[in-house]
Design a protein that fits this description.
Alpha-Beta Plaits; five-stranded antiparallel β-sheet; alpha+beta; about 170 residues
Length: about 170
């Protein structure tokens, strides 16, 4: 890459990383194939996330002077960045890939909303339900409560109707 291309690349990467709600750093081991990385990138797109392998020197320049600078200590070997505005979905996608390819890729650390998080915390995020799952649970709870309220309100009227029906029989 020419110097100008590198500068443009660093600027673009910095902008993408700073605009993400979560940035996850992964270390790639040996033996990972192009097909596997392509599958990971497709999975990331499905979860509205991105995955980029960035040369460590360019990554350091991109995160220099920002709230992501603490990630520079994890930039060794072949490093990849997964990032998104949905922390749960990106964590699930990268966690599943790492689980399938244990010896080829490892979650190292990340930054979520400006705070450092460990690889274990990212794995915990991956076990949470998605935003849509949480919404459906909330709707289920609200409709259950609404049903109980309706039954409670209708019960006194039903009791009166049963008493009147029994009186009418006698």
């Amino acid at each position: 890459m020419l110097r100008q291309e590198k500068e443009n690349f660093v600027t673009r990467v910095k902008e993408e990383l700073l605009n993400a709600g979560i940035v996850i750093v992964v270390n790639r081991g040996n033996g990972i194939t192009v097909e596997e990385i392509t599958k990971l990138r497709k999975d990331m797109v499905k979860s509205q996330s991105k995955f980029k392998v960035i040369k460590n020197t360019l990554a350091r320049k991109a995160i220099e002077g920002s709230n992501l600078e603490s990630l520079s200590q994890y930039l060794s070997g072949t490093t990849g960045f997964a990032f998104s505005n949905d922390p749960v979905e990106v964590s699930k996608a990268i966690f599943e890939f790492c689980k399938e390819n244990e010896d080829k890729m490892e979650i190292v650390a990340g930054i979520m909303d400006g705070k450092s998080i460990t690889g274990n915390q990212i794995k915990e995020l991956a076990t949470l339900p998605s935003l849509d799952g949480i919404r459906s649970q909330l709707v289920g709870m609200l409709s259950s409560i609404a049903g109980k309220i309706v039954r409670t309100i209708n019960e006194p009227g039903s009791m009166v109707a049963r008493v009147l029906a029994e009186k009418a029989k006698s």
